[in-house]
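Need a sequence for this fold. Nothing fancy.
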C-alpha cells in the first residue's frame, strides 16, 4: 500500500502532462475545422442556414464567421496554453451545438459498424453497402491498391467525436493549461493572474 501511495505521489509531479496532451490533441482538430470553414465560407454558410438539406440555423454567415474564428483562436490558445479555461467555454458550446444539430440524428458512432450496442439500422445498412462496394471493387478494380494505405469505411457522422471533444474541453476547463507548459501557468506565476 505504501509503495502505491508513494508511486501516486511521485506521479503527481507529472500532472502537467494530461492537460498538455489534451491541448495538443485538440489543436489540429480545431485548426482544421476553422480553416476549412473559412476556405469554403459561402458553402458552409449555405449548409448552416438551409433548413431543407442543412442545419437550418439563423444568421448563418455570422455563425460561420464566429464559429471559424473561435475554432482558429481556440486552436492557438490551446497550442500555447493561453486563456485555456475561457476559450474552452465557446468551444464547448460549438461542440454541443454541432452534436445536437449535425450529428445527433446519426446516433453515437462516427464510423459505421454493423454490430454492437451503438449499431443502428443506419449503420447496419451502411455495412451492407460497404461489403457490396468491396465486392464490386475486388471484381472490377485494383482493390489492393485502393486499400494498401487503410481499410475502406463508411462515415456515420454520429456524435462520438463531438462528445469526445466536449469532454476533453470540459477537463481542460477544470484542469487549466497545465503546470510548466502553458502560458497561463507562467502568467499566473509572474503576475498573480488567476
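Here you go.
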Amino acid at each position: 500500500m505504501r509503495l502505491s501511495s508513494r508511486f501516486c505521489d511521485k506521479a503527481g509531479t507529472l500532472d502537467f502532462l494530461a492537460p498538455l496532451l489534451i491541448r495538443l490533441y485538440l489543436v489540429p482538430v480545431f485548426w482544421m475545422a476553422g480553416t476549412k470553414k473559412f476556405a469554403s465560407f459561402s458553402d458552409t454558410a449555405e449548409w448552416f442556414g438551409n433548413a431543407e438539406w442543412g442545419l437550418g440555423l439563423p444568421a448563418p454567415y455570422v455563425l460561420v464567421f464566429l464559429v471559424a474564428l473561435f475554432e482558429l483562436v481556440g486552436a492557438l490558445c490551446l497550442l500555447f496554453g493561453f486563456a485555456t479555461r475561457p476559450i474552452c467555454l465557446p468551444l464547448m458550446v460549438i461542440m454541443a451545438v454541432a452534436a445536437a444539430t449535425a450529428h445527433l440524428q446519426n446516433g453515437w458512432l462516427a464510423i459505421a459498424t454493423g454490430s454492437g450496442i451503438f449499431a443502428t439500422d443506419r449503420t447496419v445498412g451502411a455495412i451492407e453497402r460497404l461489403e457490396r462496394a468491396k465486392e464490386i471493387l475486388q471484381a472490377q478494380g485494383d482493390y489492393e491498391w485502393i486499400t494498401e494505405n487503410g481499410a475502406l469505411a463508411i462515415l456515420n457522422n454520429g456524435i462520438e467525436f463531438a462528445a469526445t471533444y466536449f469532454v476533453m474541453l470540459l477537463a481542460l476547463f477544470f484542469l487549466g493549461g497545465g503546470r510548466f507548459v502553458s502560458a497561463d501557468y507562467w502568467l499566473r506565476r509572474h503576475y498573480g493572474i488567476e
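For context: The chain is about 70% helix and 0% strand.
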